[in-house]
Design goal:
Blueprint lengths: L2 H15 L7 E6 L1 H4 L10 H17 L3 E5 L8 E4 H7 L3 E2 L10 H9 L3 E4 L6 E5 L12 E4 L5 E2 L2 E8 L17
Parallel strand pairs: 1-2, 1-6
Antiparallel strand pairs: 2-3, 3-5, 4-5, 6-9, 7-9, 8-9
Length: about 180
């Protein structure tokens, strides 16, 4: 199986099990170095990023959802996303343009593929896929639920996925005051 197909299968499962709907956001962190079997940050390539990106975009696009791609620590884990998503969600824009050595190959490939790209400082995503242990949890809504994917890797990179749900408060054993202030 190739990187495109592995990425498409993994993202399809994230979108399906995470119940991703139109206009929701899925965040991806990706180390193309890890995909190629190297240590994170040591050997990423745009070619690998472009192949994986095609597989990630397909399932998200068919749902009318948004993809956000996390940059590396050299850009403080800012996120590449379509300007439309940034404006709709009210995220704060930051000024930078990722390239392979500051932002990473995946963020660079996604930035170049978008008609009107921008970077957000932070977001709150509905689901996420972490390719190569890049630590995307800071970009998920508050209650993340782990997803166990059938696709365990893309290339040599380990996959971790999650979707989010509203916080559960109260419940059948909860007591509420008769009068709420």
């Amino acid at each position: 199986m190739n990187y495109y197909e592995e990425a498409r299968i993994a993202m399809e499962e994230v979108c399906e099990k995470g119940h991703i709907k139109e206009r929701q956001i899925v965040v991806v962190g990706c180390s193309t170095s890890e995909i190629a079997g190297m240590r994170i940050g040591t050997g990423g390539t745009l070619e690998v990023a472009q192949e994986v990106l095609r597989g990630l975009v397909e399932p998200i696009s068919k749902r009318g959802a948004y993809l956000a791609v996390q940059c590396c620590e050299h850009l403080n884990r800012a996120l590449v996303l379509p300007r439309e998503a940034l404006e709709e969600k009210g995220f704060v824009e930051v000024c930078a343009e990722p390239w392979e050595h500051a932002g990473g190959s995946m963020a660079t490939a996604y930035y170049k593929s978008l008609e009107n790209p921008c970077l957000a400082e932070t977001i709150v995503a509905n689901a996420g896929l972490d390719i190569g242990d890049t630590l995307i949890g800071m970009h998920l809504k508050r209650v993340a639920v782990p997803l166990r994917l059938t696709q365990k890797t893309i290339g040599e990179a380990h996959l971790v996925a999650a979707f989010t749900r509203p916080p559960l408060i109260g419940g059948e054993r909860a007591h509420y005051p008769a009068k709420i202030r």
